[in-house]
């Protein structure tokens, strides 16, 4: 039994159109995916925009309703719907949002923002609450003096730290980080990521890291899943994916990572050309007639690839 | 485009239905019924009851509603007990006066709004713009009835430039030039008073629209390509800003109805608004409900026309 | 905004002696109004009118003012009657004070009631969306098109036991839709923000999110709309009273005094009866609008004066 088990997860959105809003073919944002995460690890979910990676994360935390399939967390099945009614175990899963500007309520002071989860789940006196918030602010590297400030008085990186402080306030076990640094300056990205690793060790956190940036994923993750049009094309350990990519889509993603080392420029160029030729010649071999990926097949104990059935 | 028109028409059906039910319920809530207007009050109550049964006034409400609405559709609104004549004839006599008044107001509204709006938008932050903005500020805040009273007091009574009541000089022969001239003369002060107030929203809209459009990229491009200032305004800016305004006249109908009630009352102008008020004070309820139904329908149709013209003028706001 | 990265180890900002409390939104709005001269003068004028009207009306004997005095009909202004008397010998100045008080009171009551209903309905409809919202919007659209004035007049006549309470209820019944539609469209925008999603993942209930998270973000627009509505409602009430469908005659309103001008004689030669009330309505509405527009500018950061 894994820490988090996702089994055949499907999230479809109804698509309304026509004169009287008739239901037409639904949009299959997530179309049958499958993965496990072990406690204390970081799992990376990679894909282009529209591949369904964000929807997957939002379905696990309950913001999008699950069409079919199941999500099991520590042996308990999660359902969607009113998050509040599902009781205390929801507090063990928290989320870090992509946009540090819209994810903090502009009319609330830092104290109110960070103490929101505490007020929902814990009965604290005002002074206890203030002490907790100040302690959390210190943990994320912000001044405890700033509890009475408003979000607009902080920079993007600082705001993201406030968001993280809010997410760890309830000492959760799993954190879903949806593009946590993509809205930040490159100079701040590394700081926030390193800090996320620090608190991972400190609190034994498990991360589901959703990103389009393979560099970040390589730096952060133990396991990686690559998504394309709502399905998995490849899954494996970080080494499996980066050293031995099997699917043409994965290869194209990896060949596109820029490398600043000039001595490797020639080598890199050759690899990219190779992948491009293979893509042009063999694209049809990797995707079904509808342009979607095939079901995953194991090629080693940890490495799965969506290849057409060869017998 | 036809889909938009069709959709909009479909939306109108429940609106008309809802209006008729509302007016019907209102009619039922008002004291008295159709018989109160028809019969001599000294008649025997038993005969009265028999009459009620015969006219279907004891039927369940949905049957009564159906009878009432089918008659209304055919133009039969019942009898006015005060004037002892069919309501439709009574309204017919007054209708044209109100239509002329509304039309004159509408024309004046646009005649005032367009030059003021363009001046204020094109030369924004000059003294002319400040003057116009100041006027719209006051016009927006001032209630119509106060403004109209002041106009009547100053121009009607104090200076005596305009007649202070009626729709035409008594004794003039219909069809003659004097008759038409007298009609227009009587119309002028009420229409100007109303237009000066109703125009301010259009002036404000036009101003902000022009200022907005002025900063759009396609205007900057047009200027960069060497288009003359006149061409930029006539071909690009006004085209974009004036068309929506032209479509607003349908929405104006609801406002005009409220306005004519005050204006006709203040200027003793014999139109439907005045008829409405006098019928209410005389408890002539069949006239009241018919007028509400008529005005409500006019507003709904006005909004329909505006929605459809707007969707033709500006494809972005079509209902999906 | 300063985007400089702050090193993790030395993130302490230059500390003040006290935990530095930033000015709240209300303080910023207040600063803007004080800075806007026209609005500030309007606000002071409004406060003066309200204080003096409510103050003086405590001293005045309303019974005596509204009762007919046959010995002093239609008198011009004098020492005893500052603004003369009407056709019933009633003191016009006293009626002006009481009328202003009544008009202001009903304006405020109707504004608060329509505001409460409008905000509640708009918030729920916009936040939850879906079919209910759809039907509700069609309903509101319908009532927005209708000629409200006429229908209010018709209902005023249809109500059997007519009183100030029923008058304000009828006005409220037809006037809450505008604010509901506005709040609904803002709530619809607001609920798409990530902070609402965040609150859901943090375990806040829908009710709590609506009232604690979304509502504060709508507060400025609510205040602005209610201020502008207050002016409109005072105008509507005095208009209805002017036509004779507002307050009963025993409770004078500003509109009642203006309605004396429907008599051509009074309009032409006894201006002291109707003109002060007319001008008072005009100035009141202008002042409230000035304050409202200044609030609007203050809450819209792009238009702030600095």
TrEMBL record, chain A:
The keyword ATP-binding applies. It holds the Pfam family ABC_tran. GO terms for biological process: peptide transport; transmembrane transport. Transmembrane segments: none annotated. Keywords: ATP-binding, Nucleotide-binding, Transport. Residues 6-254 form the ABC transporter domain. GO terms for molecular function: ATP binding; ATP hydrolysis activity. Gene3D superfamilies: P-loop containing nucleotide triphosphate hydrolases. Belongs to the ABC transporter superfamily. This is Oligopeptide/dipeptide transporter. The lineage of its organism: Bacteria, Bacillati, Bacillota, Bacilli, Bacillales.
From TrEMBL, chain B:
It holds the Pfam family BPD_transp_1. One of its GO terms (biological process) is transmembrane transport. The keyword Transport applies. The chain crosses the membrane at residues 99-119, 131-155, 184-206, 241-267, 287-313. Residues 95-306 form the ABC transmembrane type-1 domain. It is a multi-pass membrane protein. Coiled coil: none annotated. Belongs to the binding-protein-dependent transport system permease family. This is Peptide/nickel transport system permease protein. It comes from Cohnella lupini.
Automatic annotation (TrEMBL), chain C:
It is a multi-pass membrane protein. Its main location: membrane. One of its GO terms (cellular component) is plasma membrane. It comes from the Bacteria. Residues 10-23 have a biased composition (Polar residues). The chain crosses the membrane at residues 38-60, 104-128, 135-156, 162-183, 209-232, 271-295. Gene3D superfamilies: MetI-like (1.10.3720.10). Residues 100-292 form the ABC transmembrane type-1 domain. Pfam families: BPD_transp_1. GO terms for biological process: transmembrane transport. Keywords: Cell membrane, Membrane, Transmembrane, Transmembrane helix, Transport. It is found in: Cell membrane. Residues 1-23 are annotated as: Disordered. Belongs to the binding-protein-dependent transport system permease family. PANTHER family: D,D-DIPEPTIDE TRANSPORT SYSTEM PERMEASE PROTEIN DDPC-RELATED (PTHR43386:SF1), OLIGOPEPTIDE TRANSPORT SYSTEM PERMEASE PROTEIN APPC (PTHR43386). This is Peptide/nickel transport system permease protein. The lineage of its organism: Bacteria, Bacillati, Bacillota, Bacilli, Bacillales.
């Amino acid at each position: 039994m894994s820490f988090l088990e996702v089994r055949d997860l499907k999230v479809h959105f109804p698509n309304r159109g026509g004169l009287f809003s008739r239901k037409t073919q639904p949009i299959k944002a997530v179309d049958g995916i499958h993965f496990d995460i072990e406690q204390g690890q970081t799992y990376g979910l990679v894909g282009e925009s529209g591949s369904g990676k964000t929807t997957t994360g939002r379905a696990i935390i309950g913001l999008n309703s699950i069409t079919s399939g199941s999500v099991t967390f520590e042996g308990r099945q999660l359902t969607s719907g009113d998050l509040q009614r599902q009781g205390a175990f929801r507090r063990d899963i928290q989320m870090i949002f992509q946009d540090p500007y819209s994810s903090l309520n502009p009319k609330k002071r830092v104290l109110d923002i960070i103490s929101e989860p505490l007020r929902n789940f814990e009965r604290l006196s005002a002074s206890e609450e203030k002490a907790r918030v100040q302690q959390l602010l210190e943990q994320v590297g912000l001044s405890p003096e700033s509890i009475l400030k408003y979000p607009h008085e902080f920079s993007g990186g600082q705001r993201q730290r406030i968001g993280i402080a809010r997410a760890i306030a309830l000492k959760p076990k799993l954190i879903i980080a949806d593009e946590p640094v993509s809205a930040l300056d490159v100079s701040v990205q590394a700081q926030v990521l390193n800090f996320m690793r620090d608190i991972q060790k400190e609190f034994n956190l498990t991360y589901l890291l959703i990103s389009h940036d393979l560099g970040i994923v390589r730096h952060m993750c133990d396991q990686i899943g690559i998504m394309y049009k709502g399905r998995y094309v490849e899954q494996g350990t970080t080494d499996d994916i980066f050293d031995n990519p099997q699917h043409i889509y994965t290869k194209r993603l990896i060949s596109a990572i820029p490398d600043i080392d000039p001595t490797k420029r020639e080598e890199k160029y050759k690899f990219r050309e190779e992948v491009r030729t293979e893509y042009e010649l063999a694209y049809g071999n990797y995707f079904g007639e509808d342009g979607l990926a095939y079901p995953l097949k194991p090629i080693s104990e940890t490495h799965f690839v969506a290849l057409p059935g060869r017998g | 485009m036809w889909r938009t028109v069709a959709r909009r028409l479909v939306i109108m059906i429940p609106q008309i239905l809802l209006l008729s039910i509302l007016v019907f319920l209102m009619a039922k809530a008002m004291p008295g019924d159709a018989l109160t207007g028809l019969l001599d009050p000294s008649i025997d109550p038993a005969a009265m009851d028999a009459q009620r049964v015969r006219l279907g006034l004891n039927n369940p409400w949905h049957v009564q509603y159906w009878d009432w609405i089918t008659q209304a559709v055919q133009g039969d609104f019942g009898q006015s007990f005060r004037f002892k004549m069919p309501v439709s004839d009574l309204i017919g006599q007054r209708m044209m006066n109100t239509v002329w008044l509304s039309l004159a107001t509408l024309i004046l509204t646009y005649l005032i709004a367009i030059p003021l709006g363009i001046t204020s938008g094109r030369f924004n932050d000059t003294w002319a713009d400040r003057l116009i903005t100041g006027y719209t500020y006051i016009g927006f805040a001032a209630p119509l009835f106060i403004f109209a009273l002041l106009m009547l007091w100053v121009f009607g009574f104090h200076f005596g430039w305009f007649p202070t009541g009626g729709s035409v000089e008594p004794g003039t022969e219909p069809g003659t030039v004097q008759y038409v001239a007298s009609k227009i003369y009587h119309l002028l002060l009420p229409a100007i008073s109303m237009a000066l107030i109703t125009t301010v929203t259009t002036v404000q809209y036009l101003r902000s629209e022009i200022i907005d459009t002025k900063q759009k990229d396609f205007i900057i491009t047009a200027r960069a390509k060497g288009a003359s200032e006149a061409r930029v305004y006539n071909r690009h800016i006004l085209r974009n800003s004036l068309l929506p305004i032209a479509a607003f006249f349908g929405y104006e109908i609801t406002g005009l109805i409220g306005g004519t009630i005050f204006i006709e009352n203040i200027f003793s102008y014999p139109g439907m608004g005045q008829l409405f008020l006098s019928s209410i004070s005389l408890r002539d309820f069949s006239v009241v409900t018919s007028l509400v139904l008529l005005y409500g329908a006019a507003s709904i149709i006005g909004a329909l026309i505006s929605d459809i013209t707007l969707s033709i003028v500006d494809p972005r706001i079509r209902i999906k | 905004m300063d985007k400089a990265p702050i090193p993790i180890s030395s993130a302490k900002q230059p500390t003040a002696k006290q935990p530095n409390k930033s000015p709240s939104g209300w303080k910023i709005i207040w600063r803007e109004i004080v800075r806007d001269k026209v609005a500030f003068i309007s606000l002071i004028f409004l406060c003066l009118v309200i204080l003096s009207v409510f103050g003086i009306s405590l001293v005045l004997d309303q019974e005596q003012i509204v009762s007919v005095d046959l010995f002093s009909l239609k008198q011009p202004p004098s020492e005893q009657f500052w603004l003369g008397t009407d056709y019933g010998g009633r003191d016009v100045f006293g009626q002006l004070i009481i009328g202003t008080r009544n008009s202001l009171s009903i304006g405020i009551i109707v504004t608060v009631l329509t505001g409460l209903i409008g905000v509640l309905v708009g918030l729920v409809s916009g936040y939850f969306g879906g079919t209910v919202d759809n039907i509700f919007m069609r309903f509101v659209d319908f009532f927005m098109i209708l000629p409200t004035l006429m229908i209010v007049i018709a209902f005023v006549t249809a109500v059997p036991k007519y009183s100030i309470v029923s008058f304000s209820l009828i006005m409220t019944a037809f006037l809450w839709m505008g604010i509901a539609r506005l709040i609904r469209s803002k709530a619809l925008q607001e609920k798409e923000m990530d902070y609402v999603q965040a609150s859901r993942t943090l375990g806040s209930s829908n009710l709590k999110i609506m009232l604690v998270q979304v509502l504060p973000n709508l507060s400025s627009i609510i205040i602005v709309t209610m201020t502008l509505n207050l002016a409109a409602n005072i105008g509507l009430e005095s208009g209805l009273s002017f036509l004779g469908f507002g307050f009963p005659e025993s409770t004078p309103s500003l509109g009642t005094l203006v309605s004396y001008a429907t008599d051509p004689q009074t309009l032409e030669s006894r201006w002291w009866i109707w003109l002060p009330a007319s001008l008072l309505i005009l100035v009141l509405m202008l002042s409230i609008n000035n304050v409202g527009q200044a609030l609007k500018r203050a809450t819209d950061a792009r238009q702030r004066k600095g």
